Amino acid sequence: MEGYKSMNILILILFVSISNTVSIHVGYYDRKCPQAESIVRQVVERKFSKDNSIAAALLRMHFHDCFVKGCDASILIDSTTDTEAVEKDAGPNLTVREFDLIDEIKSELEAACPKKVSCADIIALATRDAVSLAGGPTYKAHTGRRDGVVSRASDVNLPGPSSTVAQAQEAFTAHGLTLKDMVALLGGHTLGVTHCGFFSDRLSNFQGTGAPDSTMDTGLGKRLRGVCGSDPGVDPTVSLDQSTPLVFDNKFYNEIKNKRGVLKIDQELALDRLSAKWVSNFAANNTVFEQGFVKAILKLGNIHILQGNRGGEIRKNCRVVNKIKN
Questions:
Q1: Model's pTM, two decimal places?
Q2: Which residues are annotated as catalytic?
Q3: How crowded is residue 14: how many other Cβ atoms within 10 Å of its Cβ?
Q4: Is 217 within any annotated ligand binding site?
Q5: Would you say 34 is a known binding-site residue?
C-alpha cells in the first residue's frame, strides 16, 4: 500500500512538473477556441485591404513587445493615474501603432471564446498574417502564451537606429538570438518608414565631421535631404526600403549592399565583416531570407514567455490587467 501511494505521489509530481514546462506550440487553440486563428486572419485582412502599412506596424509591435520582458503583451497596457509610466510611454514606443487593431481582434475573440485567447498570442498571430499578406512567407505560429501583468517604461531598452552591429548583437545575444537571427529580423525593415530625426546626422554632419556619412549613396543622400528639409520643427518620414517599401521581400538587403541603407544600423549590416555574410546570402536568394526570417521570428516569439502555471493571465481587455497582483 505504501509503495502504491508513493507511486501515485510520484506520478502527481511528474504531472505537475510537465504541466509547468509545456512549451507553446502550433495548434494550441484547436480545442480551446477552434476559430481563433481564422478570426485573427479575417480582421487583419479587412484592415490590410484599407491600409497595407499595418504589416510594418505589427512587426514593430511584436518586436518591441518581445524584446523587453518577453512576449507578454505588456506593450499594450495603458497607464493609469496610480501607476508609473508603462512601456508604450517609453521613447522608442511612442510611434508604435495599431493598438486599435489588436482591440478589434480581441473584441471578436472574446465574443466567440471568452477568456481563452491571450493578447500576446493575438500580436504573434496578427503579425504572421500581416507579413503573409504583404508578400512574405506563410508560416505556422506557436501559441499558448499568457499575458503579463507588469508594464514599466523603465524596462524598455532597445538597440537604437545608430547602434553598431556589435552593440545590437550584444542585445540580441542576451535574448538567445544569433547574429543570423538579428540580420534576418532587421530584414523586417523591408517594410515601413522611419522619421528623419533618426538619421538626419548622416545627411550633413555625420558624427560632427561637418560632412555627410560616406557610407550612404550620394544620390540617396541628396534625395533624403530634400525630403527631410531643414526645419527642426518638422520630422517627415521616409521608407526604410527604397525599392519595394510595401512588399515583404529581400530587396532591402540589395539596397544596403548598394549603400542605400537609411538607418545607420541597417547600413552597418552590409559593412560589418561578420554580418555582411548573411546580408549577401539573403540578398542573393529570397527563399533563403524567408526561411531565416521565419526561424528567427519564431525564436523571438519564444523569449521569456509566460505559459501554463508560470504566472500571467488571459486579459479580457488587452489594455488593462484583469486584477492587481500583489
A1: 0.90
A2: 64
A3: 10
A4: no
A5: no
